[in-house]
């Protein structure tokens, strides 16, 4: 039986970003240096496959620092943590390594700088997301006001509308934040913004690639975890760019083949915490069912690398 023809449009860049790569390396190097178990506060990155792989090597994932013993090293996730977390680790004289993405740390530093200048912060982000919790936790209670939508801008009550600055969660949709920023500027003309967009290069690049792929295809799959903000934004970006059937799948087993029956062109991308092996698995699953032609749609090239902390480069 001949397989029906199908073109897979592979978005590039896709998958792992430098911050995720570094965070995973930090856990692996910590296990190498100090032996298992190594404790990790919160999922190191939002991907079950990655977390399960590290667990098999000796990482123990916990939600809070109180779930860790004093005498084993602990690693803080790539999403960043509130100031109280490292402070508590120091009080308990724990060995800890902070795997916060340097681009998230940059937002933390920005927030502190504005706070030192007497400004109150507005954060554009998702309530409850670890990155938002970590960033808001850089400053004292009440110093950071959270907005999730343009409508939220009307409801915040800053101390002094003339003394405000805003920061952004790094994994949001570029287009969504534009609207929120416009609402902030309209209501608070004196508000100060970041020198350079807080949304990270990897988020922006993956969204741009999806925008380029979406008009060419009838369906688009995003490989990523349901709790991954940047992956969920890719699904939304594809829909906004005209691809009505845009779905998030964790891996090949989750693909709804009936939903894409008769489709000739499918777009494929992956969130910043999805490893290449899962992308390959999905491509193989398509090859089993279709006569596949793979076409690369590349909108940028990434060659950014972040160094791991010095403590891991030194012998035990």
Description:
This protein is an alpha/beta fold. The protein is built from ten helices and twelve strands. It has helices at residues 18-34, 48-57, 84-91, 102-116, 130-136, 174-187, 201-213, 229-240, 276-289, 310-313; strands at 5-12, 38-41, 59-62, 74-76, 96-98, 120-124, 144-147, 164-168, 219-223, 245-249, 265-270, 291-298. The strands form three sheets. The chain has a five-stranded parallel sheet with strand order 10-9-11-1-12, sandwiched between helices. β6 (120-124), α5 and β7 form a beta-alpha-beta unit. The model has no long low-confidence stretch (mean pLDDT 96).
H/E topology pattern: EHEHEEHEHEHEEHHEHEEHEH
Extended strand count:
12
**Spatial extent as radius of gyration:** 21 Å
The geometry reads as flat
Mean pLDDT: 96
- Portion of residues in beta strands equals 15-25%
Helix content: 25-40%
- What is the number of helices? 10
Main β sheet profile: 5 strands, parallel
The low-confidence parts are: none
Neighbour order of strands in the largest sheet: 10-9-11-1-12
**Structural class per helix/strand content?**
alpha/beta
Distance between the termini: 59 Å
């Amino acid at each position: 039986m001949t397989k029906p023809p199908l073109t897979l449009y592979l978005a590039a860049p896709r998958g792992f970003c430098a911050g995720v790569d570094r965070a995973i390396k930090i856990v692996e190097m910590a296990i190498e240096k100090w032996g298992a178990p190594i404790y990790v506060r919160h999922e190191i990155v939002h991907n079950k496959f990655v977390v399960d792989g590290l667990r098999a090597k000796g990482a123990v994932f916990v939600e809070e620092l109180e779930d860790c013993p004093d005498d084993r090293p602990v690693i803080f996730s790539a999403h960043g943590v509130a100031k109280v977390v490292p402070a508590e680790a120091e009080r308990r004289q724990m060995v800890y390594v902070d795997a916060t993405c340097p681009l998230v740390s940059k937002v933390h530093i920005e927030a502190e700088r504005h706070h030192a200048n007497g400004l109150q912060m507005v954060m554009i982000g998702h309530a409850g997301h670890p990155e938002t919790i970590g960033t808001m936790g850089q400053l004292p209670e009440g110093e950071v006001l959270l907005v999730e939508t343009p409508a939220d801008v009307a409801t915040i009550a800053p101390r002094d509308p003339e003394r405000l600055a805003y920061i952004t969660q790094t994994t949001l949709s570029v287009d969504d934040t534009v609207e929120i920023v416009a609402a902030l500027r309209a209501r608070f003309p004196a508000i100060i913004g970041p020198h350079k967009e807080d949304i990270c290069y990897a988020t922006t690049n993956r969204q741009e690639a999806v925008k380029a792929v979406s008009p060419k295809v009838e369906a688009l799959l995003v490989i990523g975890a349901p709790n991954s903000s940047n992956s969920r934004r890719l699904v939304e970006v594809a829909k906004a760019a005209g691809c009505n059937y845009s779905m998030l799948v964790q891996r090949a087993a989750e693909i709804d083949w009936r939903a894409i029956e008769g489709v000739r062109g499918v777009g494929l991308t992956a969130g910043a915490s999805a490893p290449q092996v899962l992308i390959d698995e999905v491509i193989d699953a398509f090859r089993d069912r279709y006569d596949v032609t793979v076409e690369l749609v590349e909108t940028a090239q990434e060659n950014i690398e972040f160094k791991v902390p010095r403590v891991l480069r030194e012998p035990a």
